[in-house]
Specification:
The complex is a heterodimer of chains A (318) and B (327). Chain A is built from 14 helices and no strands. Chain A has 318 residues and is mainly α. Chain A has a domain of 197 residues: MetI-like fold (Orthogonal Bundle). Chain B has a domain of 212 residues: MetI-like fold. Classes of the chains: A mainly alpha (318), B mainly alpha (327). The interface between A and B is large, with 68 and 76 residues.
């Protein structure tokens, strides 16, 4: 929390929104300067491309008929399942739905977080206190058991209900960060000035406040997407929800159910998990880049000070 | 004392919030959940006599309007009355939980403490000696934080259980042994807990490491660190006594959020190892449509998580006296 307050404190408030706008304009420059963010964007772009154009190559990802449980070969690059399905086709077919769950839940949760976090803090008073207690409660409730219990009653048909349930339980972290950020900005001169000049509240929030929180909103969004993908994978692996839907989590569920470990079919369970981890890594790397942008102290460029540390260390060592 | 009461109050409210959400969320869905569950149970042939009434009472659908239903639900839960398990009929839900919760608590507790100590230590080092080889572990740990726990568990099981027979494939102890406090049993339990524990330690490590690294970097450029340096204090003392001490605070605060992650991860991980903890029981309950057991497990997991958070909060008030007066 302190990091956020400090970061906001270091940039001068009046030029804040202009700076962010120019940063977006210089997006390419930013990407080039942060190799981590660059790697992250490349990874995500690849997955999105597979999700969009995968359907051109894979018509029915669940179709049977291949030989049963074969290792990787020229014909089946990632082998086949116990039921004679092509693992690579399933992997490609699952990319889209998995991304939909992640980004869908991320969008809804971020919207809730902005409304509750920024809205509450800006209005202030009793409603803010209530919303804050509510946020903190949602934050400490263990999500997975709750979703398991709720989803078993929902008998979640497709990925739609799953997206909603995950979104409603994962907005709180971002909301808390946005709230403390808004509280620290609410009494800045430029906000007060626009209030005094008679601007409507919603206009002050959207035009003056929101642009200065964009980086935090994006970072919260990315965290929620990672969280949603991991939660969906876990739920699918447990068999909660529709097990016939194509997602990486469901692939792992079927692999486990058909005793993949006993028969040694590593080609079946390694790729889906690897894809989840790669997607998550890509998103986390983008967040890393954002962090470095917001907090210059985290950049990998070595400042003069650190050199002095090393002199200390070496002289102490001698 | 006032700090303690306020914290206790918050977590009581949080517990109430958890059971309340649990009450209202299923109600937003049209239809009678008890009937739906009964028909599914009948299909499995697993509905015990009297289950419908218990279900109605658990959902609070047996009598009155929604307010009285809500009240009787609260009364039911405050007496720890979760009825009888449908899948393990006629064992009471509380007794199943009593026998499975300690396994999970031991596993999660030990591995979380280990992971916190190792991860935070490495994180402080990585922040201190940045751009050296330790900084190269950042992408690797990022990968770890995005890895699903259960997939890591599958990998470990495949390498150390299936390919090399270093560790047993499933269970919490050798089923031929009697669960008593003798060395044979305890060593069997430890042997069975090793891979699940390793999974939890490795999966959590990245999170602790990254947050500690970033906070150490931020703290190292604070004025008081400069001053300490200017005074000629030994670097080791600056790291431990000045930087790390302050940098660790956000990690402690973040405990609440991370514990939720760990519990979720552990539930799914237990399925991979068929480890007889609370997560495994929850899974059995889901597969058998055992709603009473699900409700009970959800309540006790929430209780455990909130208690752990309360303890961390109190500890926090101890290591950072400023928070005790704040607000």
């Amino acid at each position: 929390m302190t990091t956020f307050a400090q970061t906001v404190g270091t940039s001068s408030p009046t030029s804040g929104s202009k700076r962010i706008r120019s940063r977006i304009r210089n997006g390419w420059g930013t990407l080039r300067r942060s190799p981590r963010m660059f790697t992250g964007v490349i990874i995500i772009a690849l997955f999105v491309l597979v999700a969009i154009y995968g359907a051109l190559f894979v018509h029915d990802a669940n179709s049977f008929g291949a030989p049963i449980l074969r290792g990787p070969s020229l014909h089946y690059p990632l082998g086949t399942t116990q039921l004679g399905q092509n693992v690579l086709s399933q992997l490609i077919g699952s990319t889209g739905p998995t991304l939909e769950v992640g980004f869908g839940a991320g969008l809804i949760a971020t919207f809730l977080a902005v409304a509750i976090g920024i809205g509450g803090a800006f209005i202030g008073g009793k409603s803010d206190e209530l919303l804050n207690v509510f946020t903190n409660i949602i934050l400490v409730i263990p999500v997975m058991p709750l979703v398991i219990v709720v989803a078993s009653v929902l008998k979640a048909g497709g990925i739609g209900p799953m997206i909603l349930v995950i979104a409603f339980t994962s907005w709180a972290g971002t909301a808390r960060i946005l709230r403390s950020l808004t509280l620290s900005m609410r009494s800045r001169d430029y906000i007060l000035a626009s209030k005094v000049s008679g601007e409507k509240t919603w206009r002050v929030v959207i035009v003056e406040l929101l642009p200065n929180t964009v980086a935090f909103v994006v970072s919260g969004f990315i965290f929620t997407v990672i969280f949603a993908i991991l939660t969906q994978a876990g739920l699918a692996f447990l068999g909660v929800g529709n097990t016939s839907a194509l997602t990486w989590g469901n692939m792992l569920y079927w692999a486990q159910n058909d005793g993949v470990l006993q028969v040694g079919g590593w080609w079946w369970f390694v790729p889906p998990g690897l894809c989840i981890a790669m997607l998550g890594t890509g998103l986390a790397l983008i967040n890393f880049g954002l962090d470095e942008m917001l907090n210059p102290r985290l950049r990998s460029l070595r400042p003069v000070r650190t050199v002095s540390h090393e002199f200390d260390g070496e002289s102490a060592g001698n | 004392m006032k700090y303690f009461i306020r914290k206790l109050g918050f977590y009581l409210v949080a517990l109430w919030g958890a059971v309340t959400i649990n009450f209202f969320l299923p109600r937003l869905i049209p239809g009678n959940p008890a009937e739906a569950l009964m028909s599914r149970m009948a299909l499995n042939g697993s509905a015990p006599p009297g289950e419908y009434k218990i279900l109605l009472r658990l959902f609070g659908l047996d009598k009155g309007n929604i307010v009285t239903q809500y009240w009787s639900y609260l009364v039911q839960i405050s007496h720890f009355n979760f009825g009888v398990s449908a899948t393990q009929f006629p064992t009471p839900v509380t007794s199943i939980i009593y026998h499975s919760l300690p396994w999970t608590l031991m596993l999660i507790g030990t591995s979380t403490v280990l992971s916190f100590v190792i991860g935070t230590g490495l994180g402080a080092l990585a922040g201190w000696k940045r751009n050296r080889f330790l900084d190269a572990i950042v992408p690797a740990t990022t990968f770890l934080t995005a890895t699903p726990y259960f997939w890591l568990a599958l990998l470990f099981l495949y390498f150390f259980g299936v390919i090399n027979h270093f560790f047993p494939l499933n269970g919490a102890y050798d089923p031929t042994l009697n669960p008593t406090w003798n060395w044979t049993f305890v060593s069997s339990a430890i042997q069975h807990a090793f891979l699940p524990g390793l999974t939890l330690v490795v999966a959590q490590l990245g999170g602790w490491l990254l947050s500690m690294r970033n906070m150490t970097l931020t703290t190292l450029s604070e004025d008081f660190v400069w001053t300490a340096e200017a005074k000629g204090i030994a670097p080791r003392r600056i790291l431990l006594g000045y930087a790390a001490r302050n940098a660790i605070l956000p990690s402690v605060t973040g405990f609440a959020i991370s514990l939720g992650f760990v519990v979720s991860g552990s539930i799914v991980m237990e399925m991979v190892f068929s480890y007889q903890g609370i997560g495994y029981q929850l899974l059995q309950a889901v597969q058998g449509d055992d709603y009473s057991l699900m409700q009970g497990i959800f309540f006790f997991i929430s209780l455990a998580v909130l208690l752990a958070n309360l303890m961390v909060d109190l500890l926090y008030g101890f290591i950072d006296p400023r928070t005790r007066q704040a607000r």
